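Continuing the series of single-chain predictions for the mutant panel. This is the parent chain; the variants come on the following pages.
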Amino acid sequence: MDSEDGSSFFVPIRLALALGFREDQELDEVQVEAVERAVKLQAAKEKALRLLAMREHSRLELQVKLIQREFDVAIVRQALDELADGGFVSDRRFAESFIASRQRKSPEGRSVLEARLREHGIDRSVAQAALDQWFSQEGNEEEALRAALRKLERTAKHDVDIERKLRMKGFSLQAVRSVLAEEDTQE
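Parent structure:
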């Protein structure tokens, strides 16, 4: 295609058709800008998809990464909107994946998990729904606390250290003390 200044450039056929152009058409300035925007939008979507192919990302994570790669904020928002509409970007799916991963590696209580999700830009209602689902399907918070306790017992020697560390992992004082008391009676 030719631009107003006489320069030529290649536009992929799908993009040209989507923009309503025909072969050997000369473009005015507005049309050149439309092509440039469409190319940038496509590049942003492709980069986001490559990131998503590696692991789930929250919308906020993708936004930050794309902006760091010098994509325009408006292009990033549009790309992520289109990817979300297509089901490729989902904060709910990210939250579910994140919770499962954290609980496998280092079990945590609800409050810490919710805070971590919020740091990734997950809306409170989405975070709470994902946490409700996890704890209703995969077990309850007491089971997560027991798993965390088993891991801590390998390194921490005193109940005071274990209690403090479990509290830092987001488990309630009451639940921690209850489980520790049960453990003491079983020994």
